[in-house]
Amino acid sequence: MGPDTAEHGGVGGAPRAAPPAVEELELELLLEGIHQLHGFDYRGYERTVLRRKCKAVMAQLGLATLSALQEQVLHEPAAASTLLRALYVAPAALFDDAQEVSLLRLALGACLHGAALPRIWLADCAGAQQAWTLAILLEQEQLGARTEIYATVANDALLAEAQEATLTLEQLAQAQVNYERSGGSGKLRDYFVFEGERAVLAPALRGRITWASYNLVTDASFNEFQLISCRRALPDFGPVLRARVLRLFHDSLTHFGVLALDRPLDAGDRLAASYQPLQAPAPWYRRIA
Fold it and tell me: Which residues contact 256 (CB under 8 A, 6 or more apart)?
């Protein structure tokens, strides 16, 4: 039996799946390697989610095992960048979630109108288009000029990607369809400037978005906010990390501020008594204590 057959061992040369215990060990070693070498701690994330995302990267790179992925991540910067991007929340598109847009409109009226200088935190922001959606909604609600959006992402590569983002004219046309489905009227083009065949959010609106690299796993509260949204990233967190992040959000949210989550707070959660639903059954809450 040749070396290649011995390694892969599958019928017709197909890769043989590692036993579950071995695969579990491989995943833990990969996460530890990412943490030690690159400084990103995914050890508190849901293993099912991590395994699915890692296997998608393995297929993309033509790798048979998590150990092979670990070898590339430790030695090839491009492979590490590919994996880190895959482990992060999937990028949003402009007005891609009609329910979220509807709830945002409600939340902005509920928590921002009474604040002198409102602040909103998009934690683990799903890219420039999620922040742009919010900036446009604020402008329409006549709150844009006095509201600051803080959009944080996990690393400098994602930060640069968000700050340099543009749209094709085709993407803007699709965004117009999404916008109308979410109850919007008028033309999204009015909020953009054009550079040849590309569109970018108008400077006056972009200037209201502060981008920063921020680690939800390790970093402390850095400001006080009237609205915090982390709906897209929270599903990836394991129970311990989720509890830690919810505590962080609680410490960062003003009284009567709004917290937008991915699922309802557990009745047994110690923080649950501090919140009331903004519009049940959606997991958006107003802090009352």
Answer: 111, 114, 286, 287, 288
